[in-house]
Amino acid sequence: MEITWSSRYDTGIQLINEQHQELFGIVDRLRRMVQEGAGRDALEAQLGDLLACSRRHFATEETYMRRFGYPDLPQHVSEHASMLTSLHELTTKFQESHQSMALMVPTFMEGWLKHHISDGDFGFVTFLKAHNLA
């Protein structure tokens, strides 16, 4: 099963859309690598890419939200921090049992991405539109 970004996740903000697409791509590659039996080093490198891309994306979102005075920024930052903590925990568990944990990461990330974009990011988009900022 492919993990793909679709237009229903379009925020109207090009850079954020591009980063969401990149995250979906990394998660999909990770899932395929696990299914194809990729080695531990390759999976670990992909997990590193996922962490780096997530951090970069969250920093971008938070910068946009600060710039426009988004009132729900503290909650959004908290959601980002919580996801990074969960991803770090899964990555640590991967060190112990890489085959069983490797598939849990893309499953977790796919659900988290879809929920976060639909519920969290679209709240910001609605705010921008309501204040004629988008």
Give structural notes.
Helix 1 packs antiparallel against helix 2, helix 2 runs parallel beside helix 4 and helix 3 packs antiparallel against helix 4. The protein contains four helices and no strands. The chain has one domain: Four Helix Bundle (Hemerythrin (Met), subunit A). The radius of gyration is 15 Å and the shape is elongated. It starts with 13 loop residues before the first helix and ends with a helix. Helix content is about 80%, strand content about 0%. The model has no long low-confidence stretch (mean pLDDT about 85). The chain is mainly alpha-helical and about 130 residues long.
Topology record:
Blueprint: H1 14-35, H2 40-67, H3 73-96, H4 98-130
Helix pairs in contact: 1-2, 1-4, 2-3, 2-4, 3-4
Describe the structure in brief:
The chain is mainly alpha-helical and 134 residues long. Helices cover 80% and strands 0% of the residues.
